[in-house]
């Protein structure tokens, strides 16, 4: 599985995808877009480090790791994605105790953590991403 993250930029509304690094509590997505200096997509060939032009500061709370799964429309599912399936809405969370990703159903605006379901490819193939916890807190009843 590819390790990929997303995060919403500090100075705007755009989401960026790629690697991640943190420096003194700040979070940066290392975008996989082509470097303007050398043309590389990952590491600047001239300085041997990720291109600083491709490091975008993002809101730390917006950062989510890709689960490796996609919804029924082929949209990638990340930690913090809000999905709907079987006439229910839920949020993707990291279930560290059980070392898995979980889908926590939302009831009256609150995720029901005790009902967290481990997710898998066949389950998420029946779901659709309808938002995320950063941009769509209204779907969570917040």
Briefly, what CATH class of the largest domain? Answer: Mainly Beta
Low-confidence stretches: 43-49
The CATH superfamily label of the largest domain reads YopX-like domains
| Major beta sheet summary | 6 strands, antiparallel
CATH architectural arrangement of the largest domain: Roll
3D architecture notes:
With about 140 residues, this protein is mainly β. It has 2 domains: about 5-60, no CATH class; about 65-140, Roll (SH3 type barrels), CATH 2.30.30.290. Helices cover about 5% and strands about 45% of the residues. The chain has 1 helix and 12 strands; from the N terminus they run E-E-E-E-E-E-E-E-E-E-E-H-E. It has one helix spanning about 120-125; strands spanning about 5-10, 15-25, 25-30, 55-60, 65-70, 75-80, 80-85, 90-95, 100-105, 110, 115-120, 130. The strands form 2 sheets. Strands 4-3-2-1-5-6 form a 6-stranded antiparallel beta sheet, with no helix packed on it. Strands 7, 8, 9, 10, 11 and 12 form a 6-stranded antiparallel beta sheet that branches. A hairpin with a 5-residue loop joins strand 5 (about 65-70) and strand 6. The longest helix is centred in the C-terminal third of the chain and has 4 residues, at about 120-125.
């Amino acid at each position: 599985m590819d390790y990929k993250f997303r995060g919403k930029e500090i100075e705007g509304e755009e989401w960026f995808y790629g690697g991640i690094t943190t420096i003194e509590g700040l979070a940066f997505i290392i975008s996989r877009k082509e470097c303007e200096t050398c043309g590389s997509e990952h590491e600047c060939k001239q300085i041997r480090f990720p291109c600083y032009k491709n490091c975008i500061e993002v809101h730390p709370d917006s950062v989510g790791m890709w689960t490796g799964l996609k919804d029924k429309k082929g949209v990638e599912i990340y930690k913090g994605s809000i999905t709907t399936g079987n006439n229910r809405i839920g949020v993707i969370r990291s279930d560290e105790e059980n070392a898995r990703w979980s889908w926590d159903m939302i009831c009256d605006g609150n995720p029901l953590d005790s009902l967290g379901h481990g997710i898998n490819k066949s389950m998420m193939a029946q779901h659709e991403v309808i938002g995320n916890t950063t941009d769509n807190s209204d779907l969570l009843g917040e």
